[in-house]
Write a structure and sequence with these properties.
CATH class of the largest domain: Alpha Beta
CATH architecture of the largest domain: Alpha-Beta Complex
Number of domains: 4
Distance between the termini: 103 Å
Helix content: 25-40%
Largest sheet: 6 strands, antiparallel
Radius of gyration: 29 Å
CATH superfamily of the largest domain: 2-enoyl-CoA Hydratase, Chain A, domain 1
Shape: globular
Number of helices: 18
Length: about 500
Amino acid sequence: MAKQYSSRFIPLIISVGIVIGILLGSFFATHFAGHRLNLLNASSNKISDLLHLIDDQYVDTVDMADLVEKSLPCILRELDPHSAYISAEEVEATMEELNGSFSGIGIQFTIYEDTVRVVRVIEGGPSESVGLKAGDRIVKVGNTCITGKAYDNDKVMKVLKGTSGSKINLQVMRAGHKGLLSYTITRGSVPVKSVDAAFMLNPTTGYMRIKNFGDATYAEFLNAMARFNQHGMSSLVIDLRGNPGGYMEAAVQICNEFLPAGRLIVYTQGRRSPRRDYKSDGRGVYQSIPLVVLVDETTASAAEIMSGAMQDNDRATIIGRRTFGKGLVQVPIEFRDGSMLRLTQARYYTPSGRCVQKPYTPGDESDYEMDLIERDFSGEYYSADSIKTSGKKYKTRLGRTVYGGGGIIPDTFVPRDTLGMTSYFKEAYMRGLLNSFAYYYTDHHRARLDRMNKEQDVASYLRSHRIVDAFATFAERNGLKRRNNLIQQSYHLFETI
């Protein structure tokens, strides 16, 4: 009887034990984890409660989805300048350059005098295969007229882009043809080049401009180097000016081509991200070729990784001005609706141990955004002595001193060229007249210019046709008073821009 009694209560005893265990676990988690879990739960519940209260009790009707979309960037701004929320509508456009392609018809266009005009037909894109040409004016898409002030760049872009395989009909005007020409184009993959210039500067020196680091950058780099080799290249200039960065892996792959085995290229580290080293594997083909890397104040992120790796390994001469100073690593996190969070999870460091991230105050973006303008005011763009550093010294592989404090400070400083800068030139530039004239002149001389294959031929043609005087006449017709003395002072700038 005693055995039956005790066996009947065994399940109850076990249940009581489990409950006591859960309570003890909660107690210790609360008191020995600094209340962190409860604080997180309380904070997230607070945000959720606030949204529910607004939805339920606010005086006016509120678009809650829109409110959440607008709130997320505000929260992320309190972390750092580069953690960001990207809406579903913006994700595709944001990723195009990094992915190396997008779905569309493959043209670059400008809107001039209320008409969409084809500036360039992208090689390998759908428009090239059907015969669309630079200079064509797009008048209709389907049955919809897209001329007039109702259409800006964004609206035209949305009309022209679409899912791969879908068709679009364009009605275009072409110089020398009567009536409209009709083209039906099947949208498809349009390549986006990240190596947008590669040519020989002289019989032995190759020049390559990398405008960003994306999925296809390494392959484009190898293709350009192969062409250089065919021309007998023995030294190389890589231009990273204006390069905002992109994928770190692409920069690491290119660095690997220039370094012997075992050299540190970059390392990353964060609170929840253990240190990870990226080293060269020794299989690089160009380990001994003389190398120069050009940088400026808009060289950032992955482009700074490459610059820092080449400098700290004493592998290249860095020429230009102090780089932007972005040393934070963002990881993309996708939401179910197609939107994306780019959350900073680590910092990256050059081989000498420098974090190139410039100082920032969480939640205060104004000073951070004004940094490049303040460099101008301080004279940094014009004198190496004005460059700000943290004063902390680091050593390159061969013992040269480099400095921290934000960005990569070049080995050879090149000031901004202000020779010939006048109020006339500034006004022409700020009003967009230079770009407008470039299209206008090209459009009116397209037949002759199309026959020229060399840059030198184009330059000679423009000089012989007094291109600066032609611009001054065009600018005056568009409201900029002719100032002959100032034009002469800025003559060289107008010719070379």
